Amino acid sequence: MYRMFFCLFILAACCLGQQSSAQLLGDSIVATVGERNITVKEFIDGYEFGPAFPKRKENSKSVYLKYWINENLLSLDAESRGLDTADIFRTVYKDIYNDILTEALYKQEITPRVSIADAEIEKGIAAANFEITLKWLFCETDAELHKVFDQLKQGVLFDTLFKQTLPTDVFPSDRELTTTKFNLFKKNPVLAAIVDSLHEGMISKPVQGADGWYIVRIESITRNGIVTESAYASAKQEVRNYLVKSVLDKESDRYVDSLMRQSNFIIDGDAFRIARAYVGKYELRKKIFEDWKLGEPAEKAVDKLKKSGVALENQPLVASASGRYLLNDFIAWFSSRSSYLKFPVSSKAAFSREIEITIWRMVRDNLLTAEASKKGLAGDAEVMRNARLWKNKILYAIGRDELLNSLRVTNKTENPLLSSTKKATELTPEISSAINSKLSVLKKKFPVMVNTVLLEKLQVSEENNPRAIDVFTAKRGGIFPHPAFPSIDQIWSAWE
Q1: Can you give 265-284 as a three-state secondary structure string?
Q2: 3-class state of residue 38 by DSSP
Q3: What is the domain-level CATH number for residue 191?
């Protein structure tokens, strides 16, 4: 329940050139905006993981840098006007800063525990060289499984049962799969272990999945006999990354579970019913909310708290001898993440269970943040660097929205870091002209200097490529999902 889902951002395909540049040039300054420096590392990270529109242009690096400078100008302007004291800034910055802290904790406490044997990597590479095609029968209930499996034992052909058990709204291709043994292992280790013991044409014993039972037949197994050096290197990297992440997940499970056990928190029933109703009002259709009668128990809980003299905002939702988290803490935590959270609507029980899991996730996040602070990671150089970059990005986004609102482009987004693609389509020539005028004024206030010689030397992927495509890399792990790197906004594509 408490697993830390930290993502690995090492994307080998686009980092070969970037690593050599970053290693050789380190924190060399490619541009300055006012008193801010844009370093080589910041430039390359943002370019590689940012939108594709600059990469499609001639002088791609200059195009990207131009808009990175624009964002810094708007960010400096926002900072000079005290927007870093605004509630929206504090809320978003706190969430991202805590995420940066906990990632540093993860690297310090979990990463050193990981060790992958060469034999395991070679085994994975071998599995990646075998392509298999599967076909399966699916049984949703135990009764269906017994009926189908008995028919197989009585000699009924697999293909006959395949046709008989196929629902009218399911295509035969939906129950066939061609993949490598290693990819199957990544998706379903239990099924992969069974498949590994079968040869072509064999039928497996029933395999239980999350949604029912599967009986699998191996249609074909093909081995790739000729492996080029580059293909081997690519497979090795893929296998190693997966095995490392698997070990990291297990170690982080243990680490978080240990923190949770030590804390021994208990959820208060009345506060839970109020929290469930609050989330239900946002996440459920009105009819479902009323059919499940989520409002009545919440109202009774509120009345009970009023009679006891406890103010609603001071009511503990989760408490232990070591501390407590209030209803208001959960509401603030939920509000900043509601865009990323999904709740089942299949039943009241499933919805309630997900609310409980979400509450424990909030507790986990707070415990990890507290542990990171306790270990002094707030002073870590990498933490401070990332926090500074994200502070600048958030200030830019707030300044951007304030400016666009003043120019009659509506913005109802609570989180300024959410995609601005829609805003880009709303920009008129008049608005573009007004923003350019604003930037011209800011350049006088915050002088801009570019190291064009250094910029020319930087190696990046997808440079001057009209066919470059957008690949949005989001950091969905940690304790607060957000873009992987603070790159430039899609909104600037409207200027091209």
Answers
A1: CEECHHHHHHHHHHHHHHHC
A2: strand
A3: 3.10.50.40
